């Protein structure tokens, strides 16, 4: 999102093969998960405006995230809250296929999240045309030959908050999610280009990353963008960019969704970083900044890894679904919401933080 959504927001890592997008009713076998999720759903239902929006002062992104979270946690399209939210989003569809309000500084991000939401709701094909047009818009924001960029440009294959804005890993991750949701397969050229950019955001020197930053830290983790422009991407002692949790999980998920195999050195290096920094109390490298975005990318990425137990570098095996559920339960407010006392990336907005928390919980359903 703007710095608003960085949704590192908004924003945001945000979930997207057809398998992972399927709606899952909350499992009765896990009463803690059911209770925590239902309280969060109730809170979001009370936060909706008369026009169907959620926190509209910061654009359509929060509404798309909230409706996506409700749908993934079993609410049907016919649910009054979901129906009103989807209607609000439909009114934001623009002639170019994007889903945003005119003048939005985060139009690309908002469109990608909305695609995820509409695809989750698209059980009878009622949103086929909308999704197809939005897919065309999403493809148009990627940096590639169409806007004069070739693979020699370090930003090639990435996407930013709006067309022609500097690409970053968070927005590129959501672009990949949206492309997958709209039906892109592993051989899709847009996903292949995205894989190039994602690889260049990894602290790993290889044939896939020959940028000046590649060898500076070389720990296998990921950073937000190839420039030191924001608080999350502080330089390390070697002059590179430090890796941190939300982006490393986003990078790992993005590589997998873009067709990179689990035995690829890039995936192995990312997993090794996560094993060393496995943490549910903090966003590793960032403390409590962007914590709920982190929980979302944590759940989404480990689900994409298709592992029930995740073993850290000390040999401890973690039932990550139960641990994530328990951590979120401990942070839930009496009214069912979540909120971050750290104002960075707008997570002090309980509607945004609650949407991320519910999306994280949607990956905790027992398999």
List the SSEs and their pairings.
Layout: H1 18-21, H2 31-46, H3 61-72, H4 80-90, H5 107-121, H6 128-140, H7 169-181, H8 189-200, H9 245-257, H10 265-276, H11 291-305, E1 309-311, E2 317-319, H12 320-331, H13 350-362
Antiparallel strand pairs: 1-2
Helix pairs in contact: 2-13, 3-4, 3-5, 3-13, 5-6, 5-7, 7-8, 7-9, 8-9, 9-10, 9-11, 11-13
Helix and strand element order: HHHHHHHHHHHEEHH
Biggest sheet, in brief?
2 strands, antiparallel
What overall geometry do the principal axes of the alpha carbons give? globular
Radius of gyration: 19 Å
In spatial order, strands of the major sheet run: 1-2
Question: What share of residues is helical?
Answer: 40-55%
CATH topology title: Glycosyltransferase
Question: What's the domain count?
Answer: 1
Task: State the low-pLDDT regions, or none.
Answer: 1-29, 229-233
| Tally of helical runs | 13
Molecular structure report:
- Helix 5 (107-121) packs parallel to helix 7 (169-181) and helix 9 runs parallel beside helix 11 (291-305).
- Strands 1-2 form a two-stranded antiparallel sheet.
- The two termini are 32 Å apart.
- It is built from 13 helices and two strands.
- The longest helix is centred in the first third of the chain and has 16 residues, at 31-46.
- It is mostly helical and 367 residues long.
- The protein has a single domain (18-362), classed as Glycosyltransferase, CATH 1.50.10.
- A hairpin with a 5-residue loop joins strand 1 and strand 2 (317-319).
